[in-house]
Amino acid sequence: MAVSQKHMEEITQAAESSDAGGQYLTFMLAGEEYGVEILKVQEIKGWDTATPIPNTPDYVLGVLNLRGAVVPIIDLRKRFSLESVPYGATTVVIVVKMAHEDQERTVGLVVDAVADVYRLEGGEIQPPPDMGGAVHTEFVRGLATVEEKMVILLEIDRLIDFRGMQAESKAPAKAETDA
Amino acid sequence: MSLDVNMAEIAQLFIEESLEGLDIMESGLLNLDLGAADPETMNAIFRAAHSIKGGGATFGFMEISEFAHHVETLLDEMRQGERPVTREGVDLLLQSVDCIREMIGCLASGEVDTARAKELESQLEAMLKQNPGSAAEGGSAAAPAPEQPDPAESGRAEEIGLGWTIRFRPGRGIFRSCNDPLRMFRALESLGELEVRVVGADDLDFEDLDPEECRLGWDLELRTSSDREAVEEVFAWVADECELDIDPIPGPAGDVPAAVENDASPETEEPAAAPQSEAAPARVEARAPAARSAPKPGASGQETGSIRVNIDKVDALINLVGELVITQSMLSRYNGDFDFTQIQGLREGLTQLSRNTRELQESVMAIRMLPISFAFSRFPRLVRDTGNALGKNVELRLVGENTELDKTVLEKIGDPLVHLVRNSLDHGLETPEERLAAGKPETGVLELNAYHEGGNIVIEVIDDGAGINKEKVLAKARERGLVGPDEQLSDDRINNLIFMAGFSTADEVSDLSGRGVGMDVVRRNIADLGGHVSVKSESGVGSTFTIRLPLTLAILDGQLVRVGKESYIVSLVSIVETIQVCADKVNQIAGESELFKLRDEYLPIVRLHELFGIEADSTRIDDGLLVVVEANGQRVGVFVDDLQEQQQVVIKSLEANYRQMQGISGATILGDGTVALILDVPGLIQLYFDRHGNPQHSAVAVA
Question: For chain B, what are the domain ranges?
């Protein structure tokens, strides 16, 4: 937790001095560094067991109680089809706000560890290369190089599928008339 | 930008207030005794119309304001006793109320459709002209009035455009509506040269002088090039509270008769008679679309974003918060050095805290509680209109109007109730002839009754009509294959068959009900609110529909059940019983669906662990429990490992941050801070049947 505490302070400082050039919070996932827009990050908390929701994709670990709000938790390793590892001392949940159809939703992302905060100018961000269908490029907003390392910037709004029930909810009505 | 936002907010307030005002007008109009109107009611109706007019003009909704002005004028004449309160008048006013409501409804979407308003406006005008009383009075009073202008003055006036003579006789209450003649005169002065003469000052009796009353009148002469509209505009706000005649300053000689002729009433009376007779058929036509369109925007309870709370409730809440603070400070004493001698005090503090919390919870809930009269208020009108349309005499009785229930539930129960009431009027109550033939009083009685029972609110719709025709219902059910040909059903079960989908016994489809989409929708709407509807009926005596609803949607009485490591919450309302069954009482169909026999019924077993793909302690039927739940008339046994405690839970939406899930209606946070999911019993049953095939077929196969 100490790690995230320290970073929270940095994030606050960073957020204060933010401008049009984006600031990114980066985290580690299977040895790679990923970044999310800092303004989308609500908080960082330690890992806690979530209540599983039946019949959801395996990357949805379940829901957590975040000060009275019920928040879904996504395992990013599973989301990106990476090998799962046991959760350790640095495993944290980054709570982000996602936009979906004008509504803001709060979702937790489980990552290996929090890394750093960078300021990136628009020119420093390259579009993701076309790698065929092999990689989930739909989640990648762009790539940036910071101190010789590659940082993958994520498009978090696409990480979770909020739809689903619309199609299903029509089914009961129909079945009832059949019955 | 911020101004726009504020205006939008204020305009929203205007809309809410106007809707309330319209409700007042409507209920007032319905309660009016024809011929002998209660002045208090009349005033209330008038005031409501007046503030809609004023508010409309303030916010620039001129269509509404102008239309309301006509309504107000008619109301004013009735209020002053100048015009008898007739059925036609009340009908027209009721239609106007609908029309204003429609226009206000359109405000939200932007464009206001004025077609209907125009039509009604012309009818209102026709009616205003129709009664000679008001026009003649204005005329006769006007006759001696126009002060014959001093010949010298008229000599100066060379053209008609010279200016206007204004005869202004304000009503006594003009000050109370915050109008100041002095201010108006100043406004007139800005138009040109103004001469003011006071009249009536001589016959003032100092003894009965009320400083808040206006006892004076004025004759004004305004020399200006402004047109009549500019002058009328000054008086726009008081036009309905005064006698006002505006005439051009007569030119040399010959113009005088023309000016008098202008507002002479006897002439206007005759031409007015003709449009009036034309207006009569027009009104009948207008009535039909009104009846059809009324339930659309008007009846489907507007969901407003704010509520008015009784100050007592807020005070009670503040008191409780005060108590909570005291308890908190009492407990905080134990925060520092604690030794076991203090345990008694700590315990007491905790007991107090739990009592505070419970009371606080109750009073916060009470803030959302509104009396059911909000939902009942539309029925006098509806019953009256529907009764007229069907040619039935109906007396509506409302009982328990002050029973309170949650605002959300209240808003959503409106439509199902309307449906039930319509149904009773259309199918339940008989025509006067049929009633007389059956030896019943000519007027049918429809009663709406609301009361609390346990943690529920019960709403009954009772009619003394013909009752449900059981033979017909049963025949129809057999025809549709819902009931086997030889199956014997109890009367109650037959009656409740009408809630099945697509079931309607109405011989002919009427405009009001009987389109076969009725009762199953009612049942589903009520089930969505976590409630239940049933019917009792006796042939020739009447029917009683009983709706049972939870008081609130925010809190649920739940039973915790355990499957493996997971706990779920089942709403206590949907649980019929919990039993343990032996494996040999369970039959398998085609190796897939399991059924067990509960008394005389075969019920499917829903294995929660299987449905949710989780691990249970044991999959053997003997080791666990079957929670028998019911939804939509279908019972199933849900197989769980264990029952845990019962508790009230606060419902949290899964949808807010994730999405709706089939079989789960929401989540809650348990005492230890973890999240538990709340099972949605109808959804769960549906999910089961989706995976295991249709229930009816499998059940029949065994039986």
Answer: 2-132+276-299, 144-263, 311-367, 371-550, 555-702
